[in-house]
Amino acid sequence: MSILVWKQVASLTAVAALMAGVTTMASAQARATSQQRIPVQKESAGEIARRDSAARADSIAAAEAARRDSIGRAEAAARQDSITKAEMARRDSIARADSIARADSIAKAEAARRDSIAREDSIRSAAAAAQAAFMRKGFFFGLAGGWSSPSGDYGDAFKSGYNITLPFGWQRRSSRWGVRGDIAYDSHGGKTFTTAEVPPAVPTPSPGGTANYDTNTGTVWSGNLDGVVDLAQWGANRNGSLYLLGGGGVHFFNKKKVNVTPTSGANAGVTTSYESDSQTKFGLNGGAGVAFPVGRAALYLESRYFTAYTDNTNSDWIPIIVGVKYR
What does 46-61 look like in DSSP terms, one character per residue? Predict the structure, then answer.
């Protein structure tokens, strides 16, 4: 019991001693603190109020400036965005319009091209059908040319030349009879000869004796209409044939020019030029030919005898020609 009491007394004594030490340290620190003086500046209440008011005004102005800057940036961004969108919309509209216009133009051009092709095809088809119909019914045409030789009095003044003939006509394949027309051109070269008589083909005044005659080229344009009869026919389309033809025509002779030089008499050696008038005269012709089939065409060899009733004497010539006929 006594030991327990002593332990409690000892504990209380230690606590008391600890508290006394803490109190002493606090008093010493208080004395040290009270000995240090801190300068204090006194201000009036009005100065503090002015500073607070200025601070609030600055804060409000800064906030307003920040708000205006924010609004300005937002408005500028909105305007720029609106302008950009409007420009993009305008460009898109122009691009769409251009695309539509180009597409329309291309479509119209293609339609026009197709229409043109269709019309050309239709025209070609119609022409081919018409040609086929003519051919089936017997229409034919061709081209020929060859040698042409004057004869008789006409041959005394002119020499051989050439002929060009364009034949056309009508003859059904099932028939041996047909009709042929042609346009022909004959050119005969001039001659130089000596005679005591005026040549009838180039009438000139008589020089009164023997003279040298020098004629220029003579030409004849002819339009003829002949009947045709096939003596024989062969080939798939009966384009091969041995035929006779004959008929009449109109012939145009150009002006004939001749230089006359007497070889005796008072005017010997003196050359005089004369020119006769051109003539258009009726004439007759007849001849024969042979044709050889080549597909729808025929190659033919033909000769006719022509006589035209020109002034003073008849003009005669014989062409021998080679040509092609289509039917």
Answer: HHHHHHHHHHHHHHHH
Task: State pLDDT tens for residues 261-313.
Answer: 999 888 888 999 999 889 999 999 999 999 999 988 999 999 999 999 999 89
End residue of a domain, out of 108, 132, 156: 132
Q: Which of 97, 115, 132 is the last residue of a domain?
A: 132
Q: Is residue 39 part of a domain?
A: no
Residue 188, class by beta-carbon neighbours within 10 Å (0-12 exposed, 13-18 middle, 19+ buried)? buried
Yes or no: say if 158 and 287 are a contact pair by the CB < 8 Å rule.
Answer: no
CA 52 to chain CA centroid, Å, is: 92
Of the candidates 164, 128, 123, 158, the residue with the CA atom closest to the CA atom of residue 146: 164
At 26-57, the pLDDT tens digits run 455 545 444 555 555 555 566 776 777 878 88
Q: How many helices (H) and strands (E) does the chain have?
A: 3, 12
Q: How far is CA 194 from the centre of its chain?
A: 63
Residues 105, 203 within the same domain: no
Burial call 69-90: b when 16+ CB within 10 Å, e when fewer? eeeeeeeeeeeeeeeeeeeeee
Domains: count for the chain = 2
pTM for the whole thing? 0.59
276 Cβ neighbours under 8 A, 6+ residues apart: 202, 203, 204, 255, 256, 257, 258
Angle at 250 between CA 245 and CA 251, to 5 degrees: 105
HEC assignment per residue over 91-104: HHHHHHHHHHHHHH
Burial bucket for residue 224 (CB in 10 Å: 0-12, 13-18, 19+):
buried
β 158-170/139-151 pair status? antiparallel
* Measured CA angle at 235 (ends 231, 239), to 5 deg: 65
131 Cβ neighbours under 8 A, 6+ residues apart: none
Tell me: do 212 and 83 sit in the same domain. Answer: no
